[in-house]
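Subject: sequence -> C-alpha cells, single chain

Hey, anyone have a minute? Need the predicted structure for the following. Not urgent.
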Amino acid sequence: MAKTKELSKDTRNKIVDLHQVGKTESAIGKQLGLKKSTVGAIIRKWKTYKTTDNLPRSGAPRKISPRGVKMITRTVSKNPRTTRGDLVNDLQRAGTKVTKPTISNTLRRQGLKSCSARRVPLLKPVHVQARLKFAREHLDDPDEDWENVIWSDETKIELFGKNSTRRVWRTKNAELHPKNTIPTVKHGGGNIMLWGCFSAKGPGRLIRVKERMNGAMYREILSENLLPSASALKMKRGWVFQHDNDPKHTARATKEWLRKKHFKVLEWPSQSPDLNPIENLWRELKVRVAQRQPQNIIALEEICMEEWAKIPATVCENLVK
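Reply:
Had a minute. Here:
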C-alpha cells in the first residue's frame, strides 16, 4: 500500500525519447525495468501536456494511495463498525502511516461519514413482512384518517439517564440500513414508567404506572383515561385507537373489553415502535424534562406532567403529518 517512488526527470525524458523513435510501451518498460502502465502514464502525460514535469497541485499530495482508499472504503462497507484505529493499523501494516483525521477526511471524500448507530427493533422475517403489509394497506390513506387516531404507548424516564452510542461509517440516507443500526428490545427498567396518548389535536392524558403493569391494570388505565382523552381532544365520531402488540394489549380479556366498549383498534405490526409517532413525542418530553434537571423521583414525575401539558398541539399535528 506504500506509495511508489517518483521517477527521475531523466527517466521520464528517456521514456518519451524511446517512444518517439517508435518503441512500444512494453519494450520501453523492459529496457528501463518499469511497468508497462507506468510507461503508458508518462507517455499520455507528455501527449496531453507536452511535458513530463510534475504539474501544479491544488495542495499537499494525498497520504493514502488510490489503492489504499479502495481498501479502507471496502473495509467499512463490509463492516461499518470498523474504527479509525483499525483502519490506521491496516494501512500501517501495508506500509502507509497516517493519522485518524486523515482516515476521516479520506472516507468523507468517498461520501462516508461517522454517525451514531440508530437503535431499531430487532426484526425477524415475519416482522418485516407484517410491516410491509401494513405500509401497503395504508399507503393511500388520507390525512383525515390519521388525524382521527389516538396514539398510545408506555415509556420509561430515568432520573439521570445515559444513552450509550455506537458510531458507524455510512453514506447519506443509509441510517436505517441493518448494518448501520443497533437492535434493541423493549423496556429495560427505569425510575418511572408512564402511559400516555395523543392525537393530531394535542396531547391526551399522561399517567405514572407505579406497579408492574398486567392486563387488568392496563384495562383500568384505558377505562379511566382513554375516553376522557378522546373527549378532551374533541375526536370525531369513529375515531381509532392505536396500541402495540404487547401481550397486555393483545390479551383475550383486553380485546374483549375493547370490543364491548365499541372501540375501533388500528391493526398494528409487531416490533414497530418506529412507526408510532408517539415515540417522537416521548423524545420531545424527555428532552424537555432533561433541561429541567429534576433531582428526585417526585420532582421527575411532576416535571413530566408539567412538560407534557406544555407540548403545543402544532407539534402533535406535525408528528402525525
